[in-house]
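Notes continue from the previous slide.

Worked example: a multi-chain complex. Inputs as given:
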Amino acid sequence: MGNKIRVGIVGYGNLGRGAEASIAQQSDMELVAVFSRRKPESVNVINPDVKVLHIDEAKNYTEKIDVMILCGGSATDLPEQVPAFAEMFNTVDSFDTHAKIPEYFASVDKVAQASGKTSIISVGWDPGMFSINRVMSEALLPEGNTYTFWGKGLSQGHSDAVRRVDGVKNGVQYTIPSEEVMKQVRNGENPDVSKNDRHVRTCYIVAEEGADTERIEKDIKTMPNYFVDYETTVHFITEEELKRDHAAMPHGGFVIRSGKTGEGNNQIVEYSLNLDSNPEFTASVVTAYARAAYRLNQEGQKGAKTVYDVAPGYISPKTAEELRKDYL
Amino acid sequence: MGNKIRVGIVGYGNLGRGAEASIAQQSDMELVAVFSRRKPESVNVINPDVKVLHIDEAKNYTEKIDVMILCGGSATDLPEQVPAFAEMFNTVDSFDTHAKIPEYFASVDKVAQASGKTSIISVGWDPGMFSINRVMSEALLPEGNTYTFWGKGLSQGHSDAVRRVDGVKNGVQYTIPSEEVMKQVRNGENPDVSKNDRHVRTCYIVAEEGADTERIEKDIKTMPNYFVDYETTVHFITEEELKRDHAAMPHGGFVIRSGKTGEGNNQIVEYSLNLDSNPEFTASVVTAYARAAYRLNQEGQKGAKTVYDVAPGYISPKTAEELRKDYL
C-alpha cells in the first residue's frame, strides 16, 4: 500500500457508495476512511473492512489522507463542508448548481489559497465531462452551434413532481432526447430549438385504486414548468412493474458541436454517455479527479480549480512517458 | 490587431491551407505569414492579402510571430523542421507516426528546453482528440475495454494501393467501421475483435477500357496487408462518377470505452467525429492548440508537450471566469 494515494470519503449516500466502489477499481488509490454525520454503525459500506468514522473525526486525519472526496448535496452540504475541509485537505466535489458556481468557486478558492491545498470543484459528467466537451469542441470549431441533450435518464425532480399529483401512488419520469432533433443536429442542419424542444418526457405511473387516470394524465401534462412545454407521454403500470423495470438510475446524454470550416464543410463532434448507473459514473469521475487534485498539489498548484484547469494526463494513473508511448 | 496571438504557418499543402482558414475563424489570432519551400509566387493562399515568404526568411520573424504551426509531413518534414523551429519559436505540429512519437518528443523537447520555447507535438484528431478520449475514459472506467473505429473515411494509403492494380485507371478506398461490431460495443458486450474485424473496406474503381473487372476485383481483395484480412467490397464506376462523388476528403471515427462500475453496471463513453474535411478539421485542432502553446510559454511552461499536458481551458479563447460562469 506504500505509495498509494490515500483517499477519504465524506458523506455516504449513492455518490459516496459509488466513490467507495470506484476507489477499489483504481490501482494507485486506497480508501482510508468514510466520514459521515450519521452514527458510524448505521453506515452500510460495501466492503466491511472499510473504516467508518463520525465526520468530526476528520480533523485527526490531516496527516493520513491525501485527498477528500466530498459526496454531500449541492444545496446545503457542499457550500458549507468544502470550504471547511479545504482548510485541512485537498478536496474534490461534484457541486452542480450551475448558477452558483462562480460564488462557490470564490469561497473555496479563498480558503484553499490560504491553506495551500488544492480543491477541484464541480466534477462529474454535467458539470464535468460535458463541460469539457462544450469548451473544447467550440474552441476547435468557433463557427457553429453546441447542443446538449440529456437522457435517456431518470429525473429525480420530475419524478418527485409526478408523485405529488393527486391519485398517483408512485411513479417515475424519464427525460429523453428528441430523436428528430438529434438527427437534424447530426446532419449539420443547426436547428434553432429550445431545451424544451430537444427533449421529450415519459412517465410511468402507478395510480391509486379507483383513481381517474384520464384526469391524472391531464394534470401531469399541464403541470407548469415541469411538463406543460414538453411533449409528454404517460403510461399507467402496476406497482410490480415499477419495481421490476424502473428501479435503476440510468442516465446519460449527448454534447454535439456542429461547426463549419473552410468553404462550408460540416464538421460534427459528438460526446455521449450511456450510463446504467448515474451516481456510480459521477463517482468514478470524481475519483479520477481526486488523483489530479493530489498531483496538482504536489506540484504546488494550489487553490480552487475546475475541470478546465486539469490536463488530461493528471487524471490517469499512467506516467507521461507511458501515455505518449501507448495511447497517443 | 493589438493583442492578438501572432501566428505563422510553415508548409502549405492541405493542412496549411486548413490552418489559414482556421486562423481566420479565431477572433484572438492573426496570421502573420505563410512560409514555404516553394517560390512564394507559386503558393496559392486563400486570402490574397496574406504574406507568403520563403521558409529561409522565418528566422527574421522571431520577434513578430508568437507561435508557428508546422504543416509538413510526418515522414521527413516534421522530424527535421520542428527541432529547427523550436530553437526560435513556440510550435505546434501534427506528427502522426505513432510508433516514433517517443523519440520525436525527446528530440523536440531537448531543443525547446534549451531555447525556452514551448512545442506541442502530435496534435490533431488521431493522435489528438482521440488520444485524449482514450486516456480520460480509461481513467474514469479502469475496468473495461476501449475501442477505436476509424471512418467512414477516405484512406490515402489504400487508395494508392488500389490504383497500382493492373487495369485500374483510377480509384478510391473508404475505411468503414463495422456496424455490427459497433452495436456490440455500444451494448456493453465487449467483443474480442481485432482491428481488421472492426472495419470493412469499400473501393470505387474506374477500370481501364477493356480491363478484366473480375480479375481486378480478385487482385484487390487478395492484396496482402491492405485487403486480404478485411471484408472488402469493390464497385466499378465511371471517371465522371468518381470526380462527382468521391473528390472530397471525409473522415472521422469513434472512440468507445465500455466499462463496468459497482456490481456490474455498464457505462459507455463515446466520442465521435463526422468530418466533411479531414485536413480542415485537423488544422482546426492544431490552430486551437497554437493558442495553448503560446499561453503555456507565457506562463513559463517550456519544452515539448502533448495534448495530455494541456488543460482544456488553454485551448479556449475565453477566460477562466467566463468558462466557469457560462460553460461549466
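Summary box: Chain B is about 35% helix and 25% strand. Residues 278-298 of chain B form the longest helix (21 residues).
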